[in-house]
Batch of 4 targets.
Target 1
Amino acid sequence: MAKNQAQNKTQQSLPFSAIYNDVIVTKSGQFSMILMVNSVNFGLKSEDEQNSIIYQYQSFLNSLTFSIEIVMQSKQLDLTNYLKDLQGRIAQEQNELIRYQIQEYIDFVKKLISIANIMDKKFFIVIPYKPTEAQSSGGIFADLFGMKNVHLQVPLRKFLTIKEDLTKRVNTVQSGLTSAGLTTEILNTKQIIELFYRTYNPDESTGEKIATEGETIGASVKKTVGKGGDDGSEAR
């Protein structure tokens, strides 16, 4: 009983109603999907290539008819597993010269890490969609911290329609970024959970894998009988 009460309190404190089928559902009724954008080494491009990227990106932003949110996540690069892998190769290598070179490289990387703050930067674009007339005053992260203790309930049939409209926006963003030479990836449910976990627990999440059951969090699906013959499941 006490355990169930603790779980309910945790659910109420979550800044979103659900993460379901690759979509974040906030408690204010906003639906969002997240794109991870792979960076390009702009400095190594020629002047013509740089100008082309800038022009295409500018054209992409000007063509949007809806808002997006650009988020950068920066954390210190963890090379522990990489160095362990190199150390294991030394034991397997028969050639003494190659073993020596690998050890020299390991020492170089360790020294570089000790004197330089090497950061791993990831870039994300949040694409929101709100089916109601009411509009949020902030982006998804501002919306997430609204902390309204109400779990939004959406019939599955309606949810699928909303996701279809949201996916059209995602495709528009992907197409625009592709024209600027940027590749993207739609985050699935597990990746979104990992992103939020790393955001709220930067120290604990280093090198840690998130284990999830199924592809939902804060959501359940059940059969309901809606009004007007809108029978179907309900995602909440």
Target 2
Amino acid sequence: MSRFGVFILSALWAVLAQAEPLLKASVDRTRLEAGESLELTLESQDVTQFGKPDLRALEGDFEVRGTRQLNSLHTLDGETRASTRWIITLLPRRSGSLRIPELQLGQSHSQAIELQVLQADASRQDSAQVFVEATLDSTEVYVQAQAVLTLRIYHSVALYDDSSLSPLQLENAKVEPLGESRTYEKEINGVRHGVIETRYALYAQQSGSLDIPPLTFTATAAASSDEAPQGNGTARAGRQVQVSSLPLRLAVRPIP
């Protein structure tokens, strides 16, 4: 090998030796409304790092609601690797364009992430303990073009795991779920609500009006300590709740 080749290899090894281990950052969404929480995930595969990421840089624009740590092992190309993830629940302190800054773990730094925090919709029926909101990303589409229906279930009381949602069935339209339902928190007029969000892709098959009927959510709301029955019975205390979204109409134009 020539002297020049040896020099290039030596330089590459020096760069690799000095490279800082990467701390990867990701969020569950980059666009949300004021009062909603989001999850920031930090992941490191550097087994020599101990301790926790320094989160002090978040304090200006975010309230840290909670942090949990997950350790895992996975095999790639016959090689077993360890990784550690920190899942951090954040509540933005204001609306507008926000930036999750670089965060540090030892000598590692994560990349910054840009967020858009929108003003909250003041028209929501926030006095109810459980309510449903349905929205469309567009009020008008062409035949066979995609429209996205988002259904959000808000609850300020704990719910048992027996909840159900009526199926979305439409005439003259194909319906496809968009990913799994996700959960997060939203503060409305000082009251913290859990949110269950489900999204559907709609593909109208003919022009005209596509009517989206109300979707009904049924669940058992856990009783408060004042409402709980006395005694040593094993029956769980709660009340049945059933709430529905408002109907929507989508205008479908013929393909030009």
Target 3
Amino acid sequence: MLTAILIDDEKGCLDTLEIELQTYCADVKVLAKFQSAEKALEVLETIRPDMIFLDISMPQMNGFDFLLKIPKINFEVIFCTAYDAYALTAFEFCAIDYLLKPISKDKLIRAVDKVRQKQSKQVDIQNLELLLANMRGGIHHKPNVAVPTPEGLEFISINDIIYAEADGNYSRIMMANKEKVLISRTLKDLETLLSNHPFVRIHQSYLVNLTHIKKYIKGEGGYVVMNNGTSLQVSRANRMKLMDLVR
């Protein structure tokens, strides 16, 4: 048996989610429902759920601020959000689970299954802080982005990123000021985060800022010369994509 708390300022959403859990996830027991994040905080000292279904946009205290007020998060968090597709890239980049409203039966079942399968019921606090930083900063409308580093979080200017290079499960970002930032995300993750900005994958190892390309040299795949003088190989598979974007 799994236990859950539901938090959403709309009563209709709470009631619907409870019915869907009873119908499709019969082993989930709803311990409590709250239309206020503040009231939920008060009872968390005595109730220990396996998971919390959490709305984001709520008056007084939103879902992010609610979590940041909890000293130790020892339960799974499933965000229930109506955010648009662009903002959802932040959730994916930060490895945070979410359900898009209106919640589909299949996705609800999968989300609960993931909780069942996890050995640890603890959220990665760094992932949560990263998500909060990027959502508050409006990554698709502001020039800065928060990225996770081995030391914590670093805020960098998107416009000043020249290119990023894959380094196993990490990526190295080369900045216009010659600084190199090692982030604890793959190049694919970074590509997803920056998908609404002028970046293109030219090789399995390189993601480049189109505004910092100085020239393209022809060849089998060719290579680009960046504004900082670095030459980067372009794979044959990505050559046409690059050509289409720079024409």
Target 4
Amino acid sequence: LNAMGRAFLPRARHVLGELETALLGMVDLSERIHGLVTVACIPSAVDNFVAGVVRDFHRRFPSIRVRLLDQSAPDILLSVARSDADFGITYLGTREPDLEFERLVDEPFVLACRADHPLARRRRVRWAELAEHDCVVLAPGSGNRLLMDQGLAQVAAKPRWTCEVQHVPAQLSLIEAGVGIGAVPRLALAGGAGSSLVGVPLVEPQLARSVGIVRKRGRPPGAAVQAFHDALVAAHRPRGRASDTV
């Protein structure tokens, strides 16, 4: 080494030492955190919103167990309020003073149909056009149905249903079997039962739901819960967008 290199060498060794210490600290942290994280989750988000996060989280924190409660949106609010779940993943916001909702992504509703259906090759479909086809719809009382009923209040021609179900996965299975077509959240088609179906944007109006995390306000999370929360946020919140909690 020349004189400049010899002068820089101690600083380089110091920087590398700090980096090694930080990396060892991360490994040590992953080994030291233990516990159980209980998450209530809407069924349509398990496959495409949570499964990959759980897989990667387990690799990083093998001593933390994750329990998923696949529930309807109203039941998720109850589970979080009663502390049966550490937090919930849902699309139904809350006005309860002791709960807070942290928005992660906005998810539009799309038309789900088989590739051989006449509407499958369309660039977009108007909601009113669904009245001309057999539809598989969600039952009244479900959170998705509530959002759609509110958004379609001014649409004269409503979808004509042939079959009614409680949850999106069952809806997708019936659509795939050829019973009819249906409006579903876009992420529901990303995998599982809806992976072979076609999704066509629905317009006039454009409806969307906000998927996020609901938890008790003012309840400090444990280390394991905070680690899983951070993993979810890192995986799904768009880069550069600040926290949106109400």
